[in-house]
Write a structure and sequence with these properties.
9 strands; 298 residues; 11 helices; Arc Repressor Mutant, subunit A; two-stranded parallel sheet
């Protein structure tokens, strides 16, 4: 079975027929994938999620349930499937490590994947001479990344004196319509696929939140009870986020848990601003020591 926890925001989609028409090739690809699965006899369920896994040495069963409008499992509707493998996805997270290391200002946007850099008209960040495009500035897909890349590239060339003001404006004007449509489509997909709040209620105290350091929910709850109300403080008490992934996997679940346990007020974005984000340290991705040694020798 293939379960999709999200639901297509139909009312929102119907308000942007032009955007959908421009992305018809992508929509057709999605339809083809579904047909391939259906012909193979795979059950497709929208608005469902895996809520628990059973097994000893290996997984043997998956407990699934339909979700309400807030993303929480509907009581009394659980089913158990016999399985030998469970594959899960948790949406996408923007690759903002470099812009965060540079100290660019960021804001939290749930539909675009989390923390994204603040950008101006020509995609410049708040750090002079640094421009952000594509999934380094929010989840939007390959086509939007290409559009933003052309604008950011022209802006960088202008910043270094290789393009005039008129030439930069010409590039931006040429991409304006495609950029607006790409951003609308990205937000539609974000509203569809971004993890719903109810999914964050699934873990129990024994659930591992940080896989790299094997930190369980009860340890994070204990840290919050001890007065830690930010990711940095919880990290110091529990080692959550100290592993190889630097919090790319556990960051949002841990932040949501902290906000809930601390009783923080405000919108999700305001709560995340209070909780903060994990700091980024080089190397951004794990490297063998041999690579660092060779770099030092050269």
């Amino acid at each position: 079975a293939v379960l999709d926890a999200g639901r297509l925001p139909v009312a929102r989609a119907l308000k942007m027929p032009g955007t959908l028409l421009a992305r018809r090739a992508q929509l057709l690809d999605g339809w083809r994938y579904r047909q391939i699965l259906r012909r193979a006899g795979v059950s497709l369920r929208s608005g469902w999620s895996v809520v628990a896994a059973h097994g000893n040495e290996s997984v043997s069963g998956a407990v699934i349930a339909p979700l309400d409008s807030g993303g929480a499992p509907i009581p009394g509707k659980k089913e158990t499937l016999a399985v030998d493998t469970i594959l899960t996805g948790w949406g996408f997270t923007p690759a903002t490590q470099l812009s965060r290391m540079l100290g660019c200002e960021h804001r939290f946007d749930h539909e675009l994947g989390g923390w994204i850099p603040q950008r101006g008209k020509y995609l410049q960040t708040t750090y002079p001479g640094v421009f952000a495009a594509g999934d380094g500035a929010g989840i939007g897909g390959a086509e939007l990344a290409r559009i933003e890349g052309r604008i950011a590239g022209a802006a960088a060339a202008h910043h270094t004196g290789f393009l005039s003001d008129i030439e930069l404006d010409r590039v931006a004007a040429r991409e304006k319509s495609a950029l607006a449509g790409g951003r609308r489509f990205a937000r539609l997909l974000g509203a569809w696929f971004a993890p719903a709040p109810g999914l964050f209620t699934l873990p129990d105290d024994e659930t591992i939140i940080c896989r790299c350091e094997s930190v369980r929910q009860r340890e994070i709850r204990a840290a919050v009870e001890a007065g830690a109300h930010s990711l940095a403080e919880v990290k110091g008490l529990t080692r959550c986020g100290m592993g190889n992934c630097q919090g790319r996997v556990c960051g949002q679940p841990a932040a949501r848990l902290i906000a809930r346990e601390a009783g923080l007020n405000g919108s999700p974005a305001e709560q995340m601003a209070q909780v903060g984000a994990f700091s980024v340290r080089p190397p951004v991705f794990p490297l063998p020591l041999s690579v660092l040694a060779e770099a030092a020798e050269s």
